[in-house]
Amino acid sequence: MENELKFRIATINDLDRIVAMLADDVLGSKRERYEQPLPDSYINAFNAINSDPNNELIVACEGDEVVGVQQITFTPYITHQGGWRATIEGVRTLSSVRGKGVGTELIKWGIHRAKERGCHLVQLTTDKKREDALRFYERLGFVATHEGLKMKL
Amino acid sequence: MENELKFRIATINDLDRIVAMLADDVLGSKRERYEQPLPDSYINAFNAINSDPNNELIVACEGDEVVGVQQITFTPYITHQGGWRATIEGVRTLSSVRGKGVGTELIKWGIHRAKERGCHLVQLTTDKKREDALRFYERLGFVATHEGLKMKL
Hints:
Two copies of one chain form a homodimer. Chain A is 34% helix and 34% strand. The first copy, chain A, is of the alpha+beta class and 153 residues long. The first copy, chain A, has a single domain, classed as Aminopeptidase (3-Layer(aba) Sandwich), CATH 3.40.630.30. A five-stranded mixed β-sheet of chain A has the order 1-2-3-4-5, sandwiched between helices. The longest helix of chain A has 15 residues, at 102-116. The radius of gyration of chain A is 16 Å and the shape is globular. At the A-B interface, α1, α3, β3, α4 and β4 of A face α1, α3, β3, α4 and β4 of B. β6 (143-152) of chain A pairs antiparallel with β5 (121-127) of chain B, so a sheet runs across the interface.
């Protein structure tokens, strides 16, 4: 990295930049609506996340610029002797910084945060169409032990 | 089903039965501790789930008997235009009722509940070692589009 990355909880002022990153993606471009003003559904979701102590929307910043995002959900389960898990979702980096290690630092920060919250496991799913993503996560130490099943409602 | 199944939010009085079901499982037997009294970690997890409006621990009952369990987590995300998802975890049925469709009814109830909560997607991961489970979920309409990655902390 040329500049040091800083990580923090996203504020409502970051939302425009976050949605822009989500929309600038092979799969995201088909399902997001990056418009001005932002659709209310994004603002409602931000408020729901921001008011929930078990959800954290995290941005990676280079100086004042938001260059990456991820959401971490902390969930208490009865399984594994009542263990908490961290689930990482919605990981994206700004296209102009790709290949510079922002994604790696983002996930490492998420793993650190999961430990800090006392989780015994950190988990995520990645679309089988994203072949590079699977290798990226495996390099970071994740193991693809599970099938990730989805059903659209 | 011989008797009608009823579904409800679990209470602390169901916890012993739930942990017994989790421990009576090929993978669960290695990681749970079904003892009397129950380890505090289970009780703490139950209380954390029970006090969180975005987590529901659901039991299936035949008369007064608990015969199945699942946990549903409702999560707001920025992705998919700020859509909510339901994640199903910790699905188990009493060994004496297996093959009688309790699991199917349990998951169908979970899908119904996810719709009721306004989710656009219901998701779960299943261990690749549970070959029957993958087919079970696919029959119910889930699609294994994703890899499920885990990292123990």
